[in-house]
UniProtKB/TrEMBL annotation:
Keywords: Acyltransferase, Hydrolase, Transferase
Pfam short name (any one): CN_hydrolase
Organism whose genome encodes this protein: Flagellimonas chongwuensis
PANTHER family registered for this protein in UniProt: BETA-UREIDOPROPIONASE, NITRILASE C965.09-RELATED
Record-given protein name: Acyltransferase
Gene3D superfamilies in the record: Carbon-nitrogen hydrolase
Record-level Gene Ontology MF annotations: acyltransferase activity; N-carbamoylputrescine amidase activity
Amino acid sequence: MAKKKYIISVIQLNLDNTPENNLVKCTEWVKKAASKGAEVILLPELYSSHYFCQSEDTENFALAEPLYGTSFKAFSALAKELGVVIIVPFFEKRMAGVYHNSAYIIDTDGTEAGLYRKMHIPDDPHFYEKFYFTPGDLGFKNIPTKKGNIGTLICWDQWYPEAARLTALQGAEVLFYPTAIGWHPQEKEEFGEKQHGAWMNVMKGHAVANGVYVAAANRIGLEKYLPDTNGIEFWGSSFICGPQGEILAQASNDQEEILMAEVDLDLQENVRQNWPFLRDRRIDMYGSITKRAID
């Protein structure tokens, strides 16, 4: 039976364009987090490479890996060795021409507790993900692990209350968001504060509306690998918040860090009892939510 309390951790890192380097680096940081007492550990989105979606280039498909390949083997062995749950976001090659932005949820015994494929795929300047990723087809899921019930969503999924709600309604106690988000350097002065604030506020809102913990792991650093561009300055600021949106741990904009926080299921229940938002949902009136627009 899962415990009433457990420790979750997010790891904020700078990542380069060499998968072998990133695998070694992430392995060491997971070990550090586990040594500090972390029981469920989250890595940033697409951990094994730089953020290649800044361009549309077929050569980047070579960065993808098949299911249960290098990443799964390495982190499965590590999860079993350390007795922790590890959330491993990776570039999945499902078959020739079909690729996903995915995440393994690996349980404490090294087995796969679940697989999530990113559902919402952006297409913005230098975030050209639709070129690479087929939208997920596994749905939104609560994933039971030996530490607790967790839900994994990925980056652009952060902006959608429907994704958070459907995951929470299945019993997820924590929503984990592996992330790769940052500023266009030329826009930072004018828009940066508002963009960053919106990112945090929408996820804190998911925590409040659903009475769940939320944890986001971002990357840091200026990734400028394309000629004649300003690159993306990843803003870090990884965080963990509680079921009232309260910040439990917050990272810097520019340092590699490990964040830790305790998930307290008695507290979660108390919050939901006193703020019974789930009780008062008017599910009889929400049929139109599945329409693109209500004309």
